[in-house]
Structures are given as structure tokens and as C-alpha cells.
Inverse folding.
């Protein structure tokens, strides 16, 4: 990470730590078993028709989808923190070039330079 000053690195480290904390809070909020249980219990005490049951199922699905996204985000953040300790942080995982400082500041978990990110997303979309 030649182009990052130690100040930059410190700022990125703090950003990642804050992001991680926010993601963990979000995950705890969504996976809190007491909350989920209470919601479930109050739901089961009401009278529902089929449409409402289907709706409840959909919102459960949505909840799990959101938890998945938060988990994935957490992995990205922890991955970035790990890379920071090994000096591989800030290098594009596809071409090995330095990821521009501005990009890292905006996306501390970025794995690729702009060009490789665009190419990767194009490939992923097929
Ligand atoms: Zn690249």
C-alpha cells in the first residue's frame, strides 16, 4: 500500500472499525431471538387469513435475506481488516495495481481498481 500515508491508513482503519460496529449492531438487532420470538408470539395470537400468512412468510424471507446481506458485509469488512495487517490491502485482487486512494476512502472494503470492478460486474451480469 505504497500510496497510502500512515494517516490514510489510520483513517481507513477507523472507518472499517466503525463500519464493522454498525454492521454488528444491525445484525444483533435483526437476529435478537427475544425480538423475533415476541413478534412471532404476538402474531400467533391474532387471527389471520391466508393472505396475511403468506405476507408474514414473505417478511420472514426478507428478514433472512437482509441478515445474509449484513453477514456478507461483515465478511467484506473483516477481510479488509485482515488484508490491512498483511500489506495486501489496497492492491487490486485482479490486476495487482494500487487501488486509487480516493476509491479506498469512499469504499474501504474495495477489492478491485475501478477498471477491474467494472469488468468484473460486467462478467457477473453475463
Ligand atoms: Zn485492477
Amino acid at each position: 500500500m505504497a500510496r497510502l500515508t500512515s494517516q490514510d491508513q489510520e483513517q481507513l482503519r477507523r472507518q472499517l472499525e466503525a463500519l464493522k460496529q454498525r454492521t454488528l449492531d444491525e445484525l444483533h438487532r435483526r437476529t435478537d431471538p427475544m425480538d423475533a420470538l415476541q413478534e412471532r408470539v404476538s402474531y400467533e395470537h391474532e387471527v389471520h387469513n391466508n393472505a396475511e400468512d403468506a405476507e408474514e412468510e414473505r417478511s420472514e424471507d426478507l428478514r433472512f435475506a437482509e441478515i445474509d446481506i449484513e453477514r456478507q458485509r461483515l465478511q467484506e469488512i473483516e477481510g479488509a481488516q485482515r488484508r490491512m495487517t498483511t500489506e495486501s490491502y489496497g492492491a487490486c485482487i485482479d490486476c495487482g495495481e494500487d487501488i486509487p486512494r480516493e476509491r479506498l476512502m469512499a469504499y474501504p472494503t474495495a477489492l478491485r481498481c475501478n477498471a477491474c470492478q467494472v469488468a468484473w460486474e460486467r462478467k457477473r451480469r453475463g
